[in-house]
Design goal:
single chain, about 350 residues, alpha/beta, Aspartate Aminotransferase, domain 1, Aspartate Aminotransferase, domain 2, 2 domains, 7-stranded mixed sheet, 13 helices, 13 strands, about 40% helix, globular, binds pyridoxal-5'-phosphate
């Protein structure tokens, strides 16, 4: 079995609703901040102090419990390095599937064994099966809250019980979509109670910085110190370091996008109901929908009309499913119009 990140082809044109990007583009305060960088600043290794301080303030954590990373993808890679360093081939990483590909890809790349635990049929969180899968070989448990691609949240109690059961392991809670959902572990006493509990965040989605590459991991100081030891010293480039404080300063933009997401989800539910399409209510900026017998065909037909959605039919339990970004309301309207004509 190989676990590789499945790179999707870049569409030449059209509406990108396949990668959960922010299709409004980032806040203009960000592009202004990047434009204001001088040739000298671009020639120097970046100073992160302002970006670290702004991110810590935004997340409500101390700077020593925070590591900025080159996208959350690098945070995931660093977590896998810390988990599997020196373990010699028998150590395990638990992945609850369907899941973001990077957990299995990084576990495998660092020499860990991938232990897959499937979600229940209704995509509810399989707490008992995860607890059962934890052994003394477990070095990391990968959780996504809310999940990608299902959009379902994990109950806090489940995270607490896993952290209690997997004390020798890192419990990595990927909160890439927490901006759109009801809960976060950041600020929760669980983070102090379980020092190996780590939270991953990205500024790719709500802040529209996917191309800039900026993410963060948050956890107990000693655990984040162990991440710092294996992370490169200049993970973020100077544009990303300038972008973060600028992005956090524009509250209106953030609030606007988060409210667009909430409206778009409701529009998708109503549109799918009207068309008789099965879907799962989501706490993220996307919705997973099932088209019995013709998921892949509909993805192609939409693509031919310039509307790109993500075929997830090969993911565990996702036969005939695709995932569509629920972001800018106008773009959701375009998707629904195209879907109606395809069906
Ligand atoms: C998008 C995504 C990421 C990656 O975020 P980047 O900051 O763009 O690297 C990580 N985890 C999940 C679940 C995602 O969907």
């Amino acid at each position: 079995m190989t676990y590789e990140y499945e790179r999707v082809a870049t569409p030449a044109s059209g509406l990108r609703l396949h990668l959960n990007e922010n299709t409004a583009g980032c806040s203009p305060t960000v592009s202004d901040a990047i434009r204001a960088l001088t040739p000298e600043q671009l020639a120097e290794y970046p100073d992160y102090d302002a970006a670290v301080a702004a991110t810590a303030a935004r997340l409500g954590v101390s700077t020593d419990s925070l590591l900025l990373t080159n996208g959350l993808d690098e945070g995931i890679l660093v977590a896998a390095m810390v988990a599997f360093r020196g373990t010699g081939g028998t150590a395990e990483g638990i992945v609850v599937v369907p899941a973001f590909d990077m957990y299995a890809a990084c576990t495998d790349a660092l020499g860990g064994q991938v232990v897959e635990v499937p979600l229940d049929d209704a995509f509810t969180f399989p707490l008992d099966r995860v607890l059962h899968a934890i052994t003394d070989r477990t070095r990391i448990v990968w959780l996504t809250n809310p999940n990608n691609p299902t959009g379902q949240s994990i109950p806090r109690d489940a995270i607490a019980r896993i952290a209690a059961a997997a004390r020798g392991a890192i419990v990595f809670v990927d909160e890439a979509y927490a901006d759109f959902g009801p809960s976060t572990v950041i600020g929760d006493p669980l983070l102090e109670q379980y020092p190996r509990l780590v939270v991953g965040r990205t500024f790719a989605k709500a802040y529209g910085l996917a191309g800039i590459r900026a993410g963060a991991v948050v956890g107990a100081r000693q655990t984040i110190d162990s991440f710092r030891r294996v992370a490169p010293p200049y993970s973020l480039n100077v544009c990303a370091a300038a972008a973060l404080p600028a992005a956090f300063a524009d509250h209106n933009y953030y609030d606007w996008y988060v409210s667009q997401v909430a409206r778009s989800r409701e529009m998708l539910y109503a549109g799918f109901d009207k068309l008789g399409v099965r879907y799962w209510k989501s706490d993220a900026n996307f919705v997973l929908a099932r088209f019995d017998g013709r998921g892949t065909a509909i993805v192609s037909a939409l693509g031919a009309r310039g509307i790109h959605v993500r075929d997830r039919s090969n993911d565990h339990g996702c036969t005939d499913c695709f995932r569509v970004t629920a972001g800018v309301v106008e773009h959701t309207r375009e998707f629904l119009t195209a879907l109606e004509s395809v069906l």
